[in-house]
Amino acid sequence: MSSRILNWFKFSSPATFYPLAGKIQKVAAAIAVVLLAIGLYMSFFVAPTDYKQGEGYRIIFIHVPSAWMSMFIYVVMAFWAAMGLVFRTRLSFMMARALAPTGALMTFIALWTGAFWGKPMWGTWWVWDARLTSELILFFLYIGYIALQGAIPDVRRGDRAGAILLLVGVVNIPIIYFSVKWWNTLHQGASVSITKGSSMSTIMLETMLIMTFAFWAYAIAVAMARVRLIILERERETRWVAELAEVRG
Predict the structure, then answer these.
(1) Residue 178: pLDDT band with limits 50, 70, 90
(2) Number of neighbouring beta carbons within 10 Å of residue 34
(3) Contact 50, 214 (CB under 8 A)
(4) What is the domain range of residue 165?
(5) In this structure, are strands 197-198 and 192-193 parallel, antiparallel, or unpaired?
(6) pLDDT tens-place string over residues 214-237
(7) Among 35, 114, 166, 198, which is least packed, fewest CB within 10 Å?
(8) Cβ contact 52:200 at 8 Å
(9) For helices 14-41 and 90-122, what crossing angle results, to 10°?
């Protein structure tokens, strides 16, 4: 068992993780393309029309997975930040940085599609609803983290400052999730629950899950591609990067 653990720890080295990230990227990208094609087809042509919201409800197959991913990615970033601070592993900070743009994108998509969904349902593009407001704060946290990383020239100081921001900001995640229970909000409650099951039809739930896994695979593929670039940028003075450049040249 100890030898297996040590074997996994070898991937904490950027030089060792770089080729593994390339393999993960290719597999995740292929999975994302297939699942996205299936999910979009089911969203528009298989899932039935909702008896209350009509055809407009179909935007939830983009809105809900992106909202889930916006929160999940931030939690993963906070995990990598904590790992970096505790174990002082460079790769942990690189992973957090690689995930940030995708997390910001998912949050933006969630807010944007939520506005399109809210207009016909609520009669307005935006309300200062507890969930919408906390999701907007999450978007600012992503942007703030990215800006902070770019504003500090010293990589190590930037990593530590960004990690602290991530760990402080993670308190916003349960606020987003439980906001519809804690406050009287316009936003509807969860249609899918681990304890209560799903209030959606089976085909709607299957479509939602397929789109969620597609977004998940996309996030992994993009993060792996981005972390490879970050590794090359930060390790450019090392011998293995120079040897890699020679091989490619």
Answers:
(1) confident
(2) 13
(3) no
(4) 20-187+196-248
(5) antiparallel
(6) 999 999 999 999 999 999 998 887
(7) 198
(8) no
(9) 20
Q: How far is CA 125 from the centre of its chain?
A: 24
| Residue at 136 is within a domain | yes
Q: φ and ψ at 48, to 5 degrees? A: -75, 165
For residue 10, being part of any structural domain is answered with: no
pLDDT in tens, 39-55: 999 999 999 888 777 77
**C-beta separation of 11 from 17 below 8 A:** yes
Contact 81, 92 (CB under 8 A): yes
Confidence of residue 248 (pLDDT cuts 50, 70, 90): confident
CA geometry: angle at 91 spanning 85 and 143, to 5°? 75
Element (H, E) at 192: strand 192-193
Residue 69 corresponds to which tokens in the numbers above? Answer: 């991913």
Residue with tokens 């999975």: 31
| Rounded Cα–Cα distance for residues 140 and 128 (Å) | 15
pLDDT for 80 equals 97
Which is nearest to 181 in space by CA: 130, 216, 141?
130
pLDDT at 142: 98
Q: Is residue 77 part of a domain?
A: yes
Q: Give the number of domains in the chain.
A: 1
- DSSP lists the bridge partners of residue 192 as 198
Distance separating alpha carbons of residues 116 and 120, to the nearest angstrom: 8
Q: How far is Cα 205 from Cα 225, in angstroms, rounded to an integer?
A: 30
Torsion angle, CA of 74/80/85/90, rounded to 10 degrees? -130
The sign one gets for the Cα dihedral 159, 230, 140, 64 is negative
